[in-house]
Amino acid sequence: MTATPTKVAAFFDLDKTIIAKSSILAFSKPFFTEGLITRASVLQSSYAQFLFMLSGADHDQMERMRAYLTDMTAGWNVEQVKAIVAETLHDIVDPLVYAEAADLVADHKASGHDVVIVSASGEEVVTPIAAALGADRSIATRLTVEDGRYTGEVEFYAYGEGKVEGIRALADEFGYDLERCYAYSDSITDLPMLEAVGHPTAVNPDRALRRTANEKGWPVLVFSNPVSLRSRIAAPSTAMAAGAAVGLTALFAGAYTYSTRRKRK
Q: For the chain, what are the domain ranges?
């Protein structure tokens, strides 16, 4: 007999919900120096990220972004990536985390709720950030690795319905009552996640999500006070490593967005 779910969790999207800005500019140079990206990617990334932050990404863009990300990283040595991140921690650009988001996470923890970070970024990126924020667990994309290198394949894509799949799996495992749970996101692409819980909230929403939130009567929050992630926790190195990984993910997204917009023109 399965026990009745009684626990409450708060599910947080990461980019533009908890993380205020990409750390792309701080990490494009060291990745270029180590030969992982081209000079063109470095030059394009800041403009592309600006466009991405302004307009967000729709479903088709996210799907193409996944293909671009896996193609770019295929063959990369995982330990080399980790080493570059570790060696360039001091170059991280603050701010990284919305103070309002960190406070909201703390409020949920104080209320006895589990906190779960849910992101389409890779688990090696999301897991340390979740730990730095004091989250209980995370749901993230899993890239396939063989012999210490990325294969260019995705084992699990934590995007759209994939996020809901991960949330329901955790609900079954830890006894979350989804009708009593909370979810926070900025993007219309996370509508399935928001609709999967009883208490959805739009945070810094894109135009489509703001319209949907208004139609459904969902709360809308605006976070505008970013702070350094390392100022929120006791271990600066952990936070900085997480921020570096976020910079890598944003770099891929920025380079891709720039490329597709140039083709459309």
A: 9-260
Question: Which pTM does this prediction carry?
Answer: 0.77
Which of 15, 114, 190, 206 is the catalytic position? 15
Whether 186 is catalytic is no
Give CA–CA dist 2/256, Å, rounded. Answer: 45
Q: Quick count: other Cβ atoms within 10 Å of Cβ 237?
A: 10
Is 206 an active-site residue?
no
Query: b/e map of 188-209 (b: 16 or more CB within 10 Å)?
Result: bbbbbbbebbebbbbbbbbeeb
Q: Tokens 């599910």 appear where? A: 11
Which structure tokens are listed for 181? 């749970």
Tell me how far apart the alpha carbons of residues 28 and 247 are, in angstroms, rounded to a whole number. Answer: 8
List phi, psi (to 5°) of 150: -70, 135
- pLDDT, mean of each 10-residue run, the chain (265 residues): 80 87 52 75 58 56 67 79 59 65 95 95 75 89 89 91 97 98 95 98 95 98 82 45 43 40 42
Angle, CA 224 vertex, CA 219 and CA 226 arms, to 5°:
125
End-to-end CA distance of the chain: 59
- Domain 9-260 is found in CATH 1.10.357.10: no
Question: Is residue 76 helix, strand or coil?
Answer: coil
Distance between CA atoms of residues 264 and 43, nearest Å: 19
Antiparallel, parallel or unpaired: β 9-13 and 149-156: unpaired
